[in-house]
Design brief:
The chain is mainly alpha-helical. The protein is built from ten helices and no strands. This is PAP2 family protein.
Length: about 325
């Protein structure tokens, strides 16, 4: 019962009526935007594309960060929990090694994405091309392997020291156990959202705005799946990652902080989505569908966390 009150106090619990109202309103907005996109996707894209947009280039570079940060935080929590439970050495060792591997891998992925887009932008400027031109379905080089490894190691050690000493070290055993549960659900949420997004991308085979030919005859509606052809405009991966920023609110212990992080996550997701249209990487329908599909996944997983964890702790 004591553990249950801890979860009630610091858990990611929103009033059910509020959640349901937000879901209904979001669904209506989604339907309206998709109807508009059905008829005006290409026109909207042609009207707003700006490959020289600094706004679009910045969010293209850092827009996917939330998914890597969620995994990194989850790995750090696993490390802290393993170090607290050395009595069961087999469990502690496997959890520690797995958590270190997850957090290192995600730090490397984060740096690869950011450095790739950064080098691409620098290269574009050097060659007098629009700064935002980039291949969203392939990575540019990020320098030598040794340099990439060194940067990753230094950044990883710095942030690990900060998180372990100034955050996780100060948590009680009960709070750390709660963080571990949140980390599991948060990681599953991001993983599932990524898998759904990647599957739809491959199967839809939609040309991106910057991949259209001069006469734009290869444009297809979002309602028309083309099959696997190497093109991956629908739905937007960046937008999926952007709205995943909402998941940071799950890790907060104070109501006010959770609210701020939730609003920040929604705003971040919207800005990332708009930036993808501006930079010519996606159409309005790609962004809209991805935003609300990911939001629905987050909604379901958060509700599952509340129901399963709260019910189990009541016992």
């Amino acid at each position: 019962m004591q553990n249950y009150h801890v979860v009630k106090k610091v858990g990611v619990i929103l009033n059910t009526d509020t959640r349901n109202k937000l879901l209904v309103v979001s669904s209506l907005v989604c339907v309206v935007l998709l109807v508009i996109a059905t008829f005006f996707d290409l026109q909207i894209s042609n009207a707003v594309i700006n490959y020289n947009s600094i706004f679009g280039t910045v969010f293209q570079t850092v827009g996917e960060s939330p998914i890597h940060i969620v995994f990194f935080l989850s790995g750090q929590i696993g490390i802290a929990y393993a170090c607290r439970h050395l009595r069961d050495k087999v469990f502690a060792v496997f959890l520690f090694v797995g958590s270190v591997s997850l957090s290192v891998w995600q730090m490397k992925q984060f740096l690869n994405v950011v450095l790739s887009y950064t080098f691409s932008a620098i290269n574009n400027v050097h060659k007098h091309r629009p700064i935002g031109l980039a291949n969203s379905d392939g990575m540019a080089g990020t320098g030598s392997l040794a340099m990439s490894f060194l940067i990753c190691l230094v950044v990883y050690l710095i942030f690990t020291a900060i998180l372990q000493y100034y955050w996780l070290h100060k948590q009680s055993d009960q709070q750390l156990a709660r963080y571990l549960l949140v980390a599991v659900f948060a990681s599953l949420t991001v993983w599932f959202a990524e898998e759904v997004n990647a599957t739809l991308k491959n199967d839809w085979g939609r040309f991106r705005p910057y991949e259209l030919n001069a006469s734009q005859t290869n444009f297809t509606s979002w309602l028309h799946p083309n099959g696997i052809n190497g093109h991956k405009s629908f739905p937007s991966g960046h937008t999926m990652a952007g709205i995943s920023c909402v998941i940071f609110s799950w890790f907060a212990t104070k109501q006010r902080t959770r609210e701020i992080l939730w609003v920040f996550g929604v705003v971040w997701g919207i800005l990332v989505g708009i930036s993808r249209i501006v930079i010519g990487a996606h159409f309005l329908s790609d962004v809209t569908f991805s935003f609300f599909l990911t939001a629905a996944i987050i909604y379901i997983m958060r509700a599952l966390y509340q129901e399963l964890v709260s019910d189990s702790l009541k016992l």
